[in-house]
Amino acid sequence: MAMSALRGALKSFSYLITAFKKPCDNIVFLMYHRVTGDVNLELDLPFELFEKQMAVLSEGYEVISFDAAIELLQARRIPPSSRPRVVITFDDAYEDFYDKALPVLEKYSLPATLYVPTSFIDNPGEAPVSVLDESSALLKPMSWDMLREAQRNHLITLAAHSHGHQEYSSLSPDAIKADVAISNGRIADELGVSFDHFAYPRGRWNEVAEATVRPFYKTITLVGGAGVSPSDFDPYRIPRVPVIRSDGFFWFSARIRGRLVYEQKILNLVKGILNASRR
After folding, report:
1. Residue in 121, 90, 139 with CA at minimum distance from that of residue 190
2. How many other CB atoms are found less than 10 A from the CB of residue 196?
């Protein structure tokens, strides 16, 4: 309850301090994880909420594929649109992407990109979450057969998300290269392709990790920030906006418009102060 109240207060504060932010013709990359709502994680949205959000995107936004967004940004000029442009992405290839999210995406003809951590697919008991508890048993991955079916779907782009889902900011260049090699090898063996796009596990990275990963992929995505404009576009530092459970439906549009960009920053600051006070 206390965390819920804090989240609400931080959303309101972030919304207020961005009140005079001018709207611009950015492309917003949204980041989802699970859409079942049966695990107590901010990144696990109730299914009904997810479907309602997709209906809103279908009606009021121009949802484009990841590759189409990259082409527009690389052209350094985004043509005017009557609707804000949005890209949908998912991390971790949970089973509910296949049996819950994908049917909704097909219903509304919405393209999406799915970042796949290969070790999780090979070892279903090793969920890519920071803390494992009794609810972790609910975190099941897609199978390789499910991924092959998604690969054939014209709405879906598959992308790399490491092998072991370790934080690259804490690994040596040799360890990163080894992890990338395993990931790329498993993808080639199972799907017969190589992936163009990559997302850091847990969004953790540094300049050493970036320099190590860049030669293997055409783009890399980060976590946090707001929309991307041609003037500040870097294909190896593409920010994605996490859509979280506490947004509910009320805050969803504000999240897309970048009005909640300071929420997580302030929350991290508060956590840092509290942790320091306990030492």
Report:
1. 121
2. 16
pLDDT tens for residues 157-178?
Answer: 999 999 999 999 999 999 999 9
Q: What are the two backbone dihedrals, phi and then psi, of residue 141, each rounded to the nearest 5 degrees? A: -90, 165
**What is the C-alpha end-to-end distance of the chain, expressed in Å?**
25
Sequence-ordered list of residues with C-beta below 8 angstroms from that of 95, at least 6 positions apart, any chain: 140, 141, 142, 146
* Bridge partners (DSSP) listed for residue 141: 94
Write out the two tokens for 119.
């070790």
**Residue 90: its H or E element:** strand 85-91
3-state secondary structure of 46: coil
d(CA 161, CA 114): 9
87, amino acid identity: V
In this structure, the number of other CB atoms found within 10 A of the CB of residue 236 comes to: 16
What gap in Å lies between CA 43 and CA 194, rounded to an integer?
28
